[in-house]
């Protein structure tokens, strides 16, 4: 069977900005697939192309068996989309939101399905309550109900847990896993949270500056690119050369980073070498997707291009 999503050499220019640079990947049927990368990497642009909101400059994409450029309406019938910002209408009840969604989708027989979804998510008894009074978790459940109303084959989620507290985020991971299993829906989500990609996605593509720089299951990527990283905050002057016998060393901004396969075994010797420095903090980061990203790009996701201003704008939008 053809994959749920096929992306071939997708490229997108916004004027001089090359937002996507020949990316290719496939999402298999029934898979939870993640696009992981910092702000500005091209994640939203990818989702916008796959949901028909914008056209690629070149390349090809097939979603649920249809070409997103040539058959956008066929694609739209078969996909659900959950944006980073909350899309429910606070002034309406949950049921009215579903009714509006049904109208937008041109659905006639939607009421049984809507009841079934609200029951599935445990919010049926609140169906006639105004959504403005819902908790964040309940709103997310309603949003997902709306996205599932027309029984899509593929769901796109752009930064689904941005701005959520840790427990709501984890609850949402469970929901995403459940709908994937119970409704057989394939999921393509974007995230800049390493842990989210690691915990939730069967396979991920790491995207940076418009390019896919690695693709595989979290375990495969850790195996291939992962290392332990010793991180030392210091004051004083250090000689990088002295440390190179321990592994690959990066020194910048008052931080030393050493990539190694056996952090615990060498840490004492490393600190001995640095006895003339004022050591402020020492951390050992075991292999994780964060160290995979560091190996591939020389920077961590947080340091990368995480844009706090845009992040808080998104949260403000979500809270409105
Ligand atoms: N409408 C637009 N006009 C011009 N440039 C754009 C437009 N949309 C995105 N870009 C640029 O394209 C690049 C990729 O942006 P995109 O939004 O896809 O990244 P992202 O990984 O989703 O990050 P974010 O989480 O910040 O949305 C960035 O350099 C961005 O500034």
Automatic annotation (TrEMBL):
InterPro entries hit by this protein: AAA+_ATPase, ABC_transporter-like_ATP-bd, ABC_transporter_ATP-binding, DrrA, DrrA1/2-like_C, P-loop_NTPase
Please report a single Pfam family linked to this protein.
Answer: ABC_tran
Q: Which UniProt keywords apply?
A: ATP-binding, Nucleotide-binding, Transport
Matching entries from SUPFAM superfamilies are given as: P-loop containing nucleoside triphosphate hydrolases
Q: Which GO terms describe its molecular function?
A: ATP binding; ATP hydrolysis activity
In the record, which residues are listed under signal peptide? none
Q: This protein's superkingdom?
A: Archaea
One of the protein's GO biological processes: daunorubicin transport
Q: Cross-referenced SMART domains, in alphabetical order?
A: AAA
Q: Which residues belong to any copy of the ABC transporter domain?
A: 5-234
Tell me which PANTHER family the record gives.
ABC TRANSPORTER ATP-BINDING PROTEIN, ABC TRANSPORTER ATP-BINDING PROTEIN NATA
UniProt family annotation:
Belongs to the ABC transporter superfamily. Drug exporter-1 (DrugE1) (TC 3.A.1.105) family.
Q: What is this protein called?
A: ABC transporter ATP-binding protein
């Amino acid at each position: 069977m053809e994959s749920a999503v096929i992306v071939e050499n997708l490229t997108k220019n916004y004027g001089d900005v090359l937002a996507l640079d020949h990316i290719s990947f496939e999402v298999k049927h029934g898979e939870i697939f993640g696009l992981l990368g910092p702000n500005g990497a091209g994640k939203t642009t990818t989702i916008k192309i796959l949901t028909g909101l914008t056209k690629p400059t070149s390349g090809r994409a097939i979603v649920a068996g249809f070409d997103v450029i040539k058959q956008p309406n066929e694609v739209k019938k078969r996909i659900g989309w959950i944006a980073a910002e909350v899309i429910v209408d606070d002034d309406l009840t949950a049921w009215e939101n579903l009714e509006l969604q049904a109208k937008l989708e041109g659905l006639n027989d939607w009421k049984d399905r809507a009841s079934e979804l609200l029951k599935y998510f445990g919010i049926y008894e609140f169906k006639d309550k105004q959504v403005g009074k819902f908790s964040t978790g309940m709103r997310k459940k309603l949003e997902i109900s709306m996205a599932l109303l027309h029984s899509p084959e593929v769901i796109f989620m752009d930064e689904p847990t941005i701005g959520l507290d840790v427990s709501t985020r984890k609850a949402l991971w469970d929901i995403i896993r459940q709908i994937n299993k119970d409704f057989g829906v394939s999921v393509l989500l974007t995230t800049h949270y390493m842990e989210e990609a690691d915990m939730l996605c069967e396979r991920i593509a790491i995207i940076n500056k418009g390019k896919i720089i690695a693709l595989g299951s979290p375990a495969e990527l850790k195996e291939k690119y992962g290392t332990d990283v010793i991180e030392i905050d210091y004051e004083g002057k250090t000689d990088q050369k002295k440390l190179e016998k321990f592994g690959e060393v990066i020194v910048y901004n008052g931080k030393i980073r050493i990539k190694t396969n056996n952090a615990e075994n060498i840490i004492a010797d490393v600190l001995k070498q640095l006895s003339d420095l004022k050591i402020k903090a020492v951390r050992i980061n075991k292999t994780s997707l964060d160290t995979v990203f560091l190996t591939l790009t020389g920077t961590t996701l947080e340091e990368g291009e995480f844009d706090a201003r845009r992040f808080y704008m998104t949260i403000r939008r979500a809270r409105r």
